[in-house]
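User: My instructor asked us to take a sequence, write out its structure as tokens, and then describe one feature of it. I'm not sure where to start. Here is the sequence I was given:
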Amino acid sequence: MKKLIMTTAALALSAGAAMAAGHELVRLGTEGAYPPYNFLDDNGEVAGFERILGDELCKRAELTCEWVTNDWDSIIPNLVSGNYDAIIAGMSITAERAEVVDFTQNYTPPSPSAYVALSADVDLAGGVIAAQTGTIQAAHVIETGATLLEFPTPDETIQAVKAGEADAVMADKDFLIPAVEESGGEMVFVGDDVPLGGGIGMAFRKSDPEMRAKFDAAIQSMKDDGTLNTLIVEWLGEDSPKF
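Assistant: Let's start with the prediction itself. The structure tokens for your sequence are:
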């Protein structure tokens, strides 16, 4: 109860400070478990590519923003129900999601998905493939006819392969590259890259078109002046698709 009261008080102070500064307070929802896009640092603060991007977008849109973390499998329902005002969480733009939320333009180009396994001779079409619940990769695995093994977090998909529970994992290649590099040769990329989705964008309630438009304009300004490509190279790597 004390924690709840303190949190409520802190939110009230933040809202008051934002109003005093003449800026609208916007709550940005993210997962906090999908490096390098978003993760929690040693102090428990949101960090990563989307933290830097989101803070810059808020600055350009003249908005005061605070960060909220939420499990991936309920991240859209909690946006719709009002627990935060926008999602910035490595979310690929898809037609299915666009039926529920409105997206900005993409802030990363479509990036390839990939498979990672413990050996190069795994059966991707007939094997067991791990993927995070509710992702475009999970949907793709089902389409291929392979057996899908879903997990709430991306880290659990990696561990499932290492533990022998799954033959391979499918995820964004940007997420898998560090896992392969840090495995010391234990994990390898398998098969061809798979282009999925329309790039990553911010998601908003359909009732908030004005707020979405502010962020959309801020994203465009970062594309125009080259700062978005600079961030992509810094956080996602030189080989990651750019604008």
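For the description part of your assignment, you could build on this observation: The chain has nine helices and 13 strands. Try explaining in your own words what that tells you about the chain.
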